[in-house]
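Structure (tokenized):
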């Protein structure tokens, strides 16, 4: 009797169908697309154009190339500073920590009292650092076997206390500096003076406008020189916004010497607010 094995026949037919389907899907034509998905109601040309543009942009960035016209623009605003930041401190050394700390405390208390009595607000005086460190020296020592070595010997302790003082009345800087040196005595250390602008935001806005305007003018000029039509702006970035201020450095002993004869002259000069932008334009 002939027996029909249905499962074996079915598996054989299924295998043939799978092989036929795989052969149909594979193609020798390299241009044949594998799969494409478009947004609903979007023209094929628009989607293709956006895809090509994204691909070129990614390739240009990855390969370090710049497509289109890339320019930089810099805007600078020059003004007079309205704030002075005085960095000063006291430094005391003694054989014990308590004595050194006490000397530094007396000197700094006198400095702060003078500043507040002469129009500097307490909120404008800020402690920057307070350090206590041991002081050592090295003494030569002869060992029992006749070898000479250097031995570390504790000689005392040093206490430093530094503050930052914001001075809003610039015409009073010289008088305040001389008064600080006199109040603090020989322990005073004047580390420097810097000038800045209390609120640079409005000047930054104006500098940013100038930077963008310069970038646009450069792009138009380059397009005209190259004989191409300048396209739309495709990228813009603010790469830096760096205020530039004057700084005056001084030393306590020099300030003390100056205050003994005449008021210390301090000039604020000028301050610059600079903004830089980078922009990229397409070429039509």
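Design, position by position:
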């Amino acid at each position: 009797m002939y027996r029909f094995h249905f499962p074996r026949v079915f598996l054989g037919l299924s295998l043939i169908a799978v092989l036929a389907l795989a052969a149909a899907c594979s193609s020798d034509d390299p241009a044949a697309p594998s799969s494409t998905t478009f947004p609903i109601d979007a023209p094929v040309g628009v989607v293709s154009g956006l895809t090509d543009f994204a691909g070129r942009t990614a390739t240009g960035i990855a390969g370090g190339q710049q497509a289109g016209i890339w320019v930089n623009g810099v805007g600078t605003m020059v003004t007079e500073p309205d704030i002075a930041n005085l960095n000063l401190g006291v430094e005391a050394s003694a054989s014990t920590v308590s004595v050194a700390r006490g000397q530094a405390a007396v000197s700094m208390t006198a400095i702060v009292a003078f500043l507040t009595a002469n129009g500097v607000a307490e909120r404008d005086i800020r402690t920057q650092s307070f350090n206590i460190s041991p002081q050592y020296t090295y003494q030569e020592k002869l060992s029992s076997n006749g070898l000479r070595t250097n031995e570390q010997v504790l000689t005392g302790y040093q206490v430093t206390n530094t503050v930052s003082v914001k001075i809003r009345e610039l015409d009073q800087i010289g008088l305040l500096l001389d008064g600080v040196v006199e109040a603090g005595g020989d322990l005073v250390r004047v580390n420097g003076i810097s000038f800045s602008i209390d609120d640079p935001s409005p000047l930054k806005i104006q500098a940013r406008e100038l930077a963008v305007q310069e970038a646009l003018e450069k792009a138009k000029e380059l397009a005209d020189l190259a004989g191409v039509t300048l396209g739309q702006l495709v990228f813009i970035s603010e790469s830096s916004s760096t205020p530039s201020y004057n700084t005056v450095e001084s030393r306590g002993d020099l300030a003390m010497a100056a205050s003994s004869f005449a008021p210390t002259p301090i000039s604020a000069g000028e301050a610059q607010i600079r903004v830089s932008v980078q922009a990229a334009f397409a070429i039509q």
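Reviewer-requested clarification: Residues 69-79+201-244+275-283 form a domain with the Translation Initiation Factor IF3 fold (CATH 3.30.110.170). The longest helix spans residues 201-226.
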